[in-house]
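Support request, please re-run this one:
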Amino acid sequence: MRLLLPSAVFLLMISIGMSLKVKQLGANWARLSWRAWLQALLATFIVPPAIALLLARLFHLNWGSTVGLFMVGAAPGAPLLTRNLAKRGFDMHLAASYQVWAALMIPLMIPLVVAAGAKFYSRDVWISPLLLLWQIISKQLLPLAVGMLIGWLAPRPAKRLQPILNVLGNIVLTVMIALTLFKMGPLLKQVTPLVPVAALLLAVACIVAVRLFEISDPLVRQTFAVCNANRHVGLALLLVGPYPVGRMATPEIACYAALAPLVILAYVKVYAPRREAALLSAAR
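Re-run finished. Output below.
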């Protein structure tokens, strides 16, 4: 079980790296102004955990549920933008650039966000940036670099292999989520029905947070909205693991992992027809 999530992330990051070039990465970063990146920082690292705490207060969630929901809100950057989504009006390369940016920001932002959130409950919590840096390098940046190297040395085989790794990674991830939910059956029965509602609302809030900011490029806005709802549940589980509250927080994290993809797919289904209509209108 512990190997499934790292394996899925590793495969997905290699797949993303195979079609990503360093120049393209820099070009995507330069595509947005500093103001747009500041808005992305707020939408990615500040708004989701704040919304999570607000939902926990509104629904009177217990301490474990509050921690689980908050840690999901604090952990962005899951590599789950599939090729099918990319074909429906979302830029997979731009999503990869966003994820690399989020990964680089995680060791700086998550310790500050978690420390600030803990202060609201009169607690002192500090997560080592070095721990986060190692997790980001070993589980995201390293496989991304491997994928980029394969794409540079063997572009044609990489092009054929990329969709296979993408599908395989998503299958492994789906199996992991299903097994986790099955294993946690007794714990999930004890969770209040408001927890899934809070998880759904948090996913919606992550999408809305990006759409509300003034990002002029619609493709950037739509891609970032989907990426922002892809919270890094694996990182959230890692962060709560060493603490006694970790077992109590796990069902909430699992709920988000299971329900957020439904919100994303619903958003894509609503958005894709509108984008196609806009393109047809522009063509005329």
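The longest helix spans residues 246-283. The two ends are 53 Å apart (CA to CA).
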